[in-house]
Amino acid sequence: AKLAILLSGRGSNMLALAEAIKTGPLRGLAEVAVVFSNDPAAPGLEAAAALGLPTASLPSKGRKRAEFDQDVVAALQAYRPDYVVLAGYMRVLSPTFVRAFAGRIINIHPADTHQHQGLHAYEWAFDNHLPETKITVHLVDEGLDTGPILAQQVVNLEGADSLAEVQRRGLAVEHVLYAETLADLIKRNAAQPEGTSC
Ligand code: GRF
Fold first, then answer.
1. Residue 13 CB neighbours (<10 A)
2. 198 in a domain, yes or no?
3. Which of 9, 55, 65 is nearest to 32 (CA)?
4. Is there a domain that residue 19 lies in?
5. How many A from CA of 187 to the centre of ligand 1?
């Protein structure tokens, strides 16, 4: 399956997915069609290029959401992705975008999406001294972190005395869970291709 990986920042999940394609659960199942960013200066874009992955970007700054997303959809479609994988893509997708790749957009969120949506989930867990958080991988629909949940994993936060420590524990789980969940999804969809179910 061809993946379009979308990011806006650091790109640690993108790197974990690239590694999982080389030597982990995504081996033989996926390839990176493109790493795309809405920020041409995103460190994750440079990290992808350093790995020899195809990259593309369109600056979202100052653009209207619907119009920008139309350009992004067109740019991504040139790579014919089977899945659009959000990896720290800091934009809410417009309905046009979601419909263009319906059921094939996947996101990772550092909290239970039933309890927390949107930005700053690790800050939320840390500020509220939560004993745990629940990393969530889900399909993206037109709402903010409201799509069907594919997998969740609890991270113990007891004794995590800094935000950095909370993030360190959480990201370690994210990096494993995302690749595994994506591998399961690809296998499941390959076993039952679209249109053949009754
Ligand atoms: C991750 O915590 C992810 O769950 C959230 O954004 C962050 C991206 O981090 N959606 P990175 O760019 O993958 O390092």
1. 23
2. no
3. 55
4. yes
5. 24
Provide the domain count of the chain. 1
- The range of the structural domain enclosing residue 9 comes to 2-191
Going from the Cα of 88 to the center of ligand 1, the distance in angstroms, rounded, reads 4
Q: What does the pLDDT look like over 85-103, one tens digit per residue?
A: 999 999 999 999 999 999 9
Structure tokens at 34: 């493109």
ipTM field: 0.98
The amino acid occupying position 29 is L
**For the CA of 44, the nearest atom of ligand 1:** 12
Count the alpha carbons within 13 Å of 170 in the hemisphere toward its beta carbon: 28
Residue 119 burial (CB < 10 Å; 0-12/13-18/19+)? exposed
Q: pLDDT of 154-186, one tens digit each?
A: 999 999 999 999 999 999 999 999 999 999 999
The structure tokens listed for 95 are 């309905």
